[in-house]
Amino acid sequence: MYTLNKESWNTRTMVKVSVLGVIGFILMLFDFPLWFAPPFLKFDISDLPSLIGAFSLGPMAGVLVQLLKNILNVVIEGSTTMIVGEFSNFVVGSIFAYIAGYIYYKDKNFKNALIGLIVGTFAMTALISVINYFFMIPFYAKLFGMSIEKIVDMGNAVNKRVVDFKSLIIYAIVPFNLLKGLVVSLVTILIYKKISPILHR
């Protein structure tokens, strides 16, 4: 398992992580719902800085960027989900960034970057779908005194394929995360080589 080595914990690296975390937080502000997903699922590209960090500084740096981004969001914006949404965002983003960064960081080339992004996208989609089904959504519903059926109804209102809890996962959660992974991956591929020299100074 990759960990930050002693050299990685220098002030310059932590400043880079902090800057990327702030950029991630700013990108979180520009979120919007998608046509096939319930409104509590908001699309943004705030995972981009953590992927950049994971590629340039190592996979754990990507996780730290995710942590800082979500802490800033709670402190500055506040949480409308009693931190459930932010925790979910941290988990899914960290899975994505760590796996993609781990694969790329072992041998930095375009092929590994592509493999890392693809594997990271599918891994985060699979894991967050399981987590949402068994823990996150039931916990969210209990916390707010809602029934699972009401959450399903929110999905059905925008996506007629959503008729029960399982179909909510299959037709909303899964495509939402696949699309998010695809978009963020494409942007990462387009800009990483252009900005990586700045992060390696």
TrEMBL record:
Transport listed as a keyword: yes
The entry's keywords: Cell membrane, Membrane, Transmembrane, Transmembrane helix, Transport
Transmembrane region(s): 15-36, 48-67, 87-105, 112-135, 168-192
Membrane topology: Multi-pass membrane protein
Subcellular location as annotated: Cell membrane
InterPro entries: ECF_trnsprt_substrate-spec, RibU
Key word Disulfide bond present: no
Role, per record: Probably a riboflavin-binding protein that interacts with the energy-coupling factor (ECF) ABC-transporter complex.
Family under the similarity heading: Belongs to the prokaryotic riboflavin transporter (P-RFT) (TC 2.A.87) family.
Protein name as it appears in the record: Riboflavin transporter
Lineage: Bacteria, Bacillati, Bacillota, Tissierellia, Tissierellales
